[in-house]
Write a structure and sequence with these properties.
Distance between the termini of chain A: 34 Å
GO cellular component, one term (chains A, B, C, D, E, F, G): Lsm1-7-Pat1 complex
Strand content of chain A: over 45%
Subcellular location (chains A, B, C, D, E, F, G): Nucleus
Protein name (chains A, B, C, D, E, F, G): U6 snRNA-associated Sm-like protein LSm5
Structural class of chain A: mainly beta
Oligomer: homoheptamer
Pfam family, one (chains A, B, C, D, E, F, G): LSM
Main location (chains A, B, C, D, E, F, G): nucleus
């Protein structure tokens, strides 16, 4: 598949930019991607984690986190749930 | 199985065209398939994600996404949930 | 086990004929089997997918689909849920 | 473990006879075992599948099926849920 | 770990004696262990299976069964749920 | 990581002493660790298993058990749920 | 990815400092990281485990624990749920 951006190549292009992560179950977060490994475990900085509560989504600010790759469902480069 | 289109060969034929993805659980989305890897992780563009809410399906537009292959149940080439 | 039809040999014999697929959870569909791979990912054509809704089973017609093998519980060659 | 019937040897001895299969979750079925592979995927004939409904167990007759081995919890040679 | 009975060595010592099996979810059974393999799939005889129903535990007698090892949570040699 | 006690080294140091095991789901038990293998399957003696019931936690005494490693979430050396 | 801190390198940098662990499901705990292995099984000391109860979060103090890596969703270096 010459010329096509393979999935992990797309992730590599996101290094240093904002990435919206939708996890299995209904957890979501947004952060700046610093690095990732072959299992798509990720280091993210300047993170906002959206907790789903009966009163709606509550945002928590976190400096940096490490995310377990096998819990990820969807990655959305350059966007955030707040974009509406 | 000469002459038969193997599953990943079908996916390869979908590159550049619309693909409806039904995931385990009740999440669904439609997008243009840009690339995929051996684990059927996918890069999709011009995506509409259908969120199931008590008020019915809500559509969200996303430029491009990366989808975790192990969360996929069914792929429907050339169709969308809106086709009814 | 000479003379016995091994499971994947049975699947191979179903190529070109109708196959009822019962998935983990309560999703079911019927289609004509076009091909499959070692993980029993399947390409099916002329598919009817049965969605379980509070009002009962709703049938959706799909031209062709790719089905993730690890989500399959039971395959029933030559039959369909409509056979009653 | 000379002299002891290993699990897959017991399954092999069941070829041609009735086998009650209790699956993870509450699905059950009974059928004549025709063949199986290393993953204990099974081909069964003359099958009765017991669907658990609010009104109790409903039996469905199926000619032959292929059963995904990783969904099996317990195998009971020579018996059936109807034995009471 | 010389002198210590490793887990599978303990299972081997249970061959021929009563074994209480507590499975993931709330299924339980007791039986005489006849054999097991590397995946701790087990052949058990003279089995009592305890079904959890709204009216309490219902015991079913089974001659012999084959149990899928990956569904086991706890093994209790020489005991049974009826010991109280 | 010279000088640091690796996880399985910590488990090895627990041989012969009391170990509180918190499993995935809400099952808990305490016992004396006799042995373990590479999959952290464990042999425990003098065990108290805490069953969560609508009326609160009910303790069951068991002589010795074999515990499936892949069901363990947390190990707490030298402590028990009764420590409060 | 020269110059970028890979996920396990970030974990290594956390040795000796406080780490907030968010697990799959809603279990959370905070502790000082003592060591970890390739599966990100972790030894933590001076631990506070937050149990989610109908009355809100209840904190339990534990000297040291071993945590099963495959149950981890998110690691937050240097922070705790009490930071609000």
């Amino acid at each position: 598949m010459a010329g096509r951006l393979l999935p992990l190549e797309l992730v590599d292009k996101c290094i240093g930019s904002r990435l919206w992560v939708i996890m299995k179950g209904d957890q979501e977060l947004v952060g700046t991607l610093k690095s990732f490994d072959d299992y798509v475990n990720m280091v993210l900085e300047d993170v906002t984690e959206y907790e789903v509560t009966p009163e709606g989504k509550v945002a928590h600010k976190l400096d940096h986190i490490l995310l377990n790759g096998n819990n990820i469902a969807i990655l959305v480069p350059g966007r955030s749930p707040d974009d509406g």
